Amino acid sequence: MDSPHSPLVKINCDAAFKDSTAAMAIVGRDSSGSVLHVYGTPCHAFSPLHAEIFAIHSACHLASCRGWYHAIVESDSQVAISLSSTDIVPPWSIDALVADIRLWSKNMNLTFSWTSRDNNKVAHYAARFASSSIFSFSWDVSFPVELTSLARNDVYCS
């Protein structure tokens, strides 16, 4: 993971999809790699790609709401990143989400980057956590010990 340079924010996102049940999570970090915000929620999705695009869409929305106008959005879904960052025509079922993502990208300074699952462990953990919950969560200050440990190891391995 390349460490973002200030005032750049890096937003990792991931989705969990199993047996027609989905959840997604977003992890925002500052230029030093410190976790700024974690959001996760169970969600409705009809495919793994739909869940991944929904996670990227939610990451863009969070960036807009938080004023993170210079951000890198990372996902371990190559197809979702490709659809978000190119002019490839998306499947009709996710076209509206992709159109929103591209509009946010154009209006803000958002870039999209694929990362391996090994570099997306914190978002993956949060998505799994969200998949076992019936409620959304939003953490700004206090994070679960497991998540904090993963985030710390992620920074050290960078």
Distance between the termini: 5 Å
Return the average pLDDT rounded to an integer. 88
CATH fold description: Nucleotidyltransferase, domain 5
Q: Which value, in Å, is the CA radius of gyration? A: 14 Å
**Which CATH class is shown?**
Alpha Beta
Shape: globular
The share of residues in extended strands comes to: 25-35%
Number of domains: 1
Q: Could you say which structural class the secondary elements and strand pairing correspond to? A: alpha/beta
Q: By CATH's scheme, which homologous superfamily applies?
A: Ribonuclease H-like superfamily/Ribonuclease H
Q: Biggest β-sheet, characterized?
A: 6 strands, mixed
- Count of DSSP-assigned helices: 5
How many β-strand runs? 6
Low-confidence stretches at least 5 residues in length (pLDDT < 50)? 1-6
What is the string of helix and strand elements?
EEEHEHHEHEH
Pfam families: RVT_3
Protein name: Reverse transcriptase
InterPro entries: RNase_H-like_dom_plant, RNase_H-like_EbsB-rel, RNaseH-like_sf, RNaseH_domain, RNaseH_sf
GO molecular function, one term: RNA-directed DNA polymerase activity
Give a verbal description of the structure.
With 158 residues, this protein is an alpha/beta fold. The chain has one domain (9-153): Nucleotidyltransferase, domain 5 (2-Layer Sandwich), CATH 3.30.420.10. The protein has five helices and six strands. It has a six-stranded mixed beta sheet, sandwiched between helices. Helix 1 (48-66) crosses helix 2 and helix 4 (121-131) runs antiparallel to helix 5 (145-157). The model is unreliable at 1-6 (pLDDT under 50).
